[in-house]
Design a protein that fits this description.
single chain; 201 residues; alpha/beta; Rossmann fold; five-stranded parallel sheet; two-stranded antiparallel ribbon; 40% helix; EC 1.7.1.17; oxidoreductase; EC 1.6.5.-; FMN
Length: 201
């Protein structure tokens, strides 16, 4: 049966981005009632920051790693295993200061790893994860970053680039814009984001 990986990165349990991911999960479970859902809440269980020990371990061949180096990569191994298992990945990604939240960045730093999710060869860099995996990013934003304000959106291009770098090129976005604006604008933004996430499910 298919597997869905759910990544939550909002500090608020009842956040708009979380409400969107949960709507996706509910629709996905109706479609695949026997499917496996893996949920990782990066605020409740933060990903460790990359350390010097992590860097040394990541660039050491597996057969030559010390016990300490293996331990340094334990969380990374777990996250990458979850990604490898998943057929579909949904990421709750509230926009923080025009980009992604700190918990999500720490998780990304753990999964972008040489020899595990990307390789470096004569032809340059190559993503090692299956490009057939579908990624959906559910994002709540205070404003709407289009037109003259499009340059402020560092979230969408970054996520497309970094996920594509490790092989995940089938990336889609559901955006609940204007969440810090007046109630009418916020409601309209949530309605559109909900329509987008359900369509992607």
């Amino acid at each position: 049966m298919p597997t869905l990986l759910v990544i939550e990165s909002s500090p608020r349990p009842a956040s708009v981005s979380t409400s969107l991911t949960q709507k996706f999960v509910a629709e996905w479970q109706q479609k695949y009632p026997g499917g496996n859902v893996i949920t990782r809440n990066l605020f409740a269980q933060p990903a460790p920051f990359v350390s010097e020990a992590w860097i040394m371990a990541a660039y050491t061949p597996k057969d030559h790693r010390t016990a300490e180096q293996t331990a340094a990569l334990a969380a990374s191994d777990e996250y990458i295993q979850e990604l490898s298992q998943a057929d579909t990945i949904v990421i709750g990604a509230p926009m923080h200061n025009f980009s992604i939240s700190a918990p999500l960045k720490a998780w990304i730093d753990q999964i972008v790893r040489p020899g595990a999710t990307f390789s470096i060869g004569e032809g340059g860099y190559k993503g090692l994860l299956d490009s057939k995996k579908k990624v959906i990013v559910a994002s709540a934003r205070g404003g709407e970053y289009t037109g003259e304000l499009a340059f402020l959106d560092h979230q969408t291009p970054y996520l497309k680039t970094i996920l594509g770098f490790i092989g995940l090129t089938d990336v889609h976005f559901a955006l609940a814009n204007n969440q810090s604006r007046a109630a009418e604008a916020a409601e309209a933004g949530l309605k559109l984001g909900t329509e987008q996430i359900l369509a992607l499910a």
